[in-house]
Amino acid sequence: MKGANMNRQLDIEMETGLRFFGKMTASISHEIKNVMAIINETAGLLEDYSLMAEKGMPIDPTRLKIVSERVSGQIKRANGIAKNLNNLAHSVDEFNKSVDLGEALALAVGLAQRLADMRSVTLELQPPSDFPTVITSPFHLQNLIWQMLDFAMDISGDAKVIGLTLGTATGSVEIRFTGLEGLKDPPETEFPTKRETSLLEMLGATINQDVKAGEMHLVLPRDVHQQLTDNG
Amino acid sequence: MEKVLLVDDEKEFLEIMAERMSARDMDVTTTTSPKDALKKAQDESYDAIILDLMMPEMDGLETLKELKKKNPDLQVILLTGHATVQKGVEAMKLGATDLLEKPADLKVLTEKIKKAHTRKMVLVQKKAEEKIRHILAEKGW
Description:
The complex is a heterodimer.
Chain A: H1 2-54, H2 61-90, E1 97-100, H3 101-118, E2 122-125, E3 133-136, H4 138-154, E4 161-169, E5 172-178, H5 194-203, E6 206-210, E7 215-221, H6 224-230
Parallel strand pairs in A: 2-4
Antiparallel strand pairs in A: 1-3, 4-5, 5-7, 6-7
Chain B: E1 3-7, H1 11-23, E2 27-31, H2 34-43, E3 48-52, H3 60-70, E4 76-80, H4 85-93, E5 98-101, H5 106-139
Parallel strand pairs in B: 1-2, 1-3, 3-4, 4-5
Helix pairs in contact in B: 2-3
């Protein structure tokens, strides 16, 4: 029985991880396609201008400047997207390392941005006054933050703005999700589910819900390895 | 002159496409909002509507459904970042004229718009002929 439960647990962990990776990379590929479409049309526009110039029509230099700025802007955008993908890919290099939570949240927001836009939800990352670090699994942390954002987007209420901040206490760090106007007690949909519970166990973390304030807090230990050892 | 409505949440994409298509003698209107597109389609007669599949507020297929509900003869060409056979079949079942993958070749898109314009003219003519037939039958001439 114990063995069967363990196998089911591993299946949940594997499925959760793979689905998260698939969702993020699919979203990134869509974004890259949009960037390529704009650059493609911009190249076509330059071709149009050169054909017009061949026919003796004057080309306003301002228009060429606008085109050039457009391309630069899209390259910058693509660079940001590629950085996010790279950071996500490298999050599986180690499963127990020091993670700057400011950077981790910035990556989480970067990865979720397009998906939030699709749901007309704004993600507001409030920069922390200091940058706490935790020793944890970067990939599983990203996965859990995404699961919480996904749930939060459904309960963001009419304002559709989710705030993300960091808070610290002795031995732990909190990631706070605010603006959850639709948070109810008891909740309308189950959260955390087996998927999130499995991630919480891996990270030695807990989720607290403050219905009155419309907030969820993800409480992370400063050192997951130490936490799991202490808990036996 | 073909009259076209472009619907995409990428404002820059719309601006460039509109400039290029206008240079090819098309009358182009743009919007980043699917809901605004529905209103425009109701107020104006377009030869073709070019619609992005993935948009916030309302996705392309949902928008297509609503457009076809109001005007079943509307010619709608979908643009997607990832065209699959499944998506293509779903789009055609909902009455899309075509499905193209981004980045789309403007020459190909222009051809499809011209065909949509011709199709629309044929449908308009058919409807006019039916109306005349109906009147003749009613009057017993």
